[in-house]
TrEMBL record:
<dbReference type="InterPro" id="IPR036249">
    <property type="entry name" value="Thioredoxin-like_sf"/>
</dbReference>
<dbReference type="Pfam" id="PF06201">
    <property type="entry name" value="PITH"/>
</dbReference>
<dbReference type="InterPro" id="IPR037047">
    <property type="entry name" value="PITH_dom_sf"/>
</dbReference>
<dbReference type="InterPro" id="IPR010400">
    <property type="entry name" value="PITH_dom"/>
</dbReference>
<protein>
    <recommendedName>
        <fullName>Thioredoxin domain-containing protein</fullName>
    </recommendedName>
</protein>
<dbReference type="Pfam" id="PF00085">
    <property type="entry name" value="Thioredoxin"/>
</dbReference>
<dbReference type="InterPro" id="IPR008979">
    <property type="entry name" value="Galactose-bd-like_sf"/>
</dbReference>
<feature type="domain" description="Thioredoxin">
    <location>
        <begin position="1"/>
        <end position="111"/>
    </location>
</feature>
<feature type="domain" description="PITH">
    <location>
        <begin position="121"/>
        <end position="330"/>
    </location>
</feature>
<keyword id="KW-1015">Disulfide bond</keyword>
<dbReference type="GO" id="GO:0005737">
    <property type="term" value="C:cytoplasm"/>
</dbReference>
<dbReference type="InterPro" id="IPR013766">
    <property type="entry name" value="Thioredoxin_domain"/>
</dbReference>
Length: 335
């Protein structure tokens, strides 16, 4: 979104916000223009389109006739002029209405952002980062194909860490998470068991001759008449992440859709405390995230998740709980 700068104080505030961004100063592009400048008007739609595509960048327009002191401070001598800032420090500029070069410079600086994100990423393992669990809107979170006895609500509400999530009819899960305000995500924690033993209730029929004596359902330790199923490494493996969907997608949409990022989890990622870094540049201004678990470590029929957490920072104080679901009820799939 393009924002028009009204005065110098507003510009200072915008640049201060960009300078204090977690992970390093954010990219800001200033478009110095005038209403009487024809080239300025011609390239304005391009500038606006870039702002919609690259939401991680702050796009600001400065009318030189209304803000001559700002234009003088930046030494503007021709229009339009585009000034690229890293926080409040100028790193590049472009003069003239040249859409291709404007887009090329933007890509160049975003590429640098991506490289810095990778180099600064903590890697997979145990790290200390802000936990966004307090900012979840749990009333708008749901899971498809969850086991009735171990649903998503147990996982999200467990303060002791002993609640867990199980899949039901097969290994796949669709977890729809809603945040109460806009967030930037840096990493995700999806812990699960390296060795998972699940005891299922099994009907045992005892006979006296040819007549049933009684039937029992049994969850306890193994005896000669009870069989327990053992699933090794039933933590998740392939995980696709989708952003800012307005409702929970169905399994077909998740399987065929293009994810923002796909994770291939290894056994070491499942251990308690392990955190997987995300492509930070792609996870800006997040309101919802869909976690699609496509399979698990062994290809067995049950997937178990012991912990699901998101780490990053809040963008602002907009409370998303004021917004309602587009359609459907919690627990329903949507196409």
């Amino acid at each position: 979104m393009v924002v028009n700068v009204d005065d110098k104080e507003q510009l200072i505030r915008f640049l201060a916000e960009a300078s204090s961004r977690p992970g390093g100063p954010g990219l800001v592009v200033l478009d110095f223009f005038a209403t009487w400048c024809r080239p300025c008007s011609e390239i304005a739609p391009v500038f606006s389109s870039l702002s919609e595509t690259h939401t991680e960048v702050r796009f600001l327009k400065v009318d030189v006739d209304k803000n001559d002191s700002i234009a003088s401070e930046y030494g503007i001598r021709s229009l339009p002029t585009f000034v690229f800032l890293r926080g409040n420090k100028e790193v590049d500029r472009l003069t003239g209405a040249r859409p291709d070069q404007l887009e090329a410079k933007l890509r160049e600086h975003l590429k640098q952002d991506s490289a810095e994100t990778i180099s600064q990423s903590p890697g997979r393992g145990n790290v200390s980062q802000p936990d966004l669990s307090p900012f979840l809107d749990t009333t708008q979170c749901e899971c498809l194909n969850e086991d009735d006895t171990h649903p998503l609500s147990n996982l999200l509400s467990s303060e002791t860490g002993d609640g867990y999530l199980l899949s039901d009819t097969d290994a796949q899960l669709i977890i729809f998470i809603t945040f109460a305000q806009f967030v930037r995500l840096r990493s995700i924690q999806i812990n699960g068991p390296e060795d998972c033993t699940l005891k299922r209730p099994i009907k045992v029929v005892l006979f006296r001759g040819k007549f049933p004596l009684k039937e029992v359902s049994y969850f306890g330790p193994q005896i000669s008449l009870i069989h327990s199923k053992v699933y090794s490494d039933c933590g998740p493996k392939t995980v696709k992440l989708f952003l800012n969907q307005t409702s929970t997608p169905d399994f077909g949409a998740c399987e065929s859709g293009d994810a923002v990022q796909t994770l291939e989890l290894e056994t070491k990622d499942l251990i308690e405390g392990a955190i997987v870094p995300l492509n930070f540049v792609k996870f800006q201004n997040v309101t919802t995230i869909t976690v699609f678990v496509a399979d698990n470590q062994t290809g067995k029929e049950v997937t178990r998740i012991d912990r699901l957490r998101f780490f990053g920072t809040c963008v602002n104080t907009t409370n998303m709980q004021n917004f309602k679901r587009v359609a459907g009820k919690a627990g329903e799939g949507h196409s």
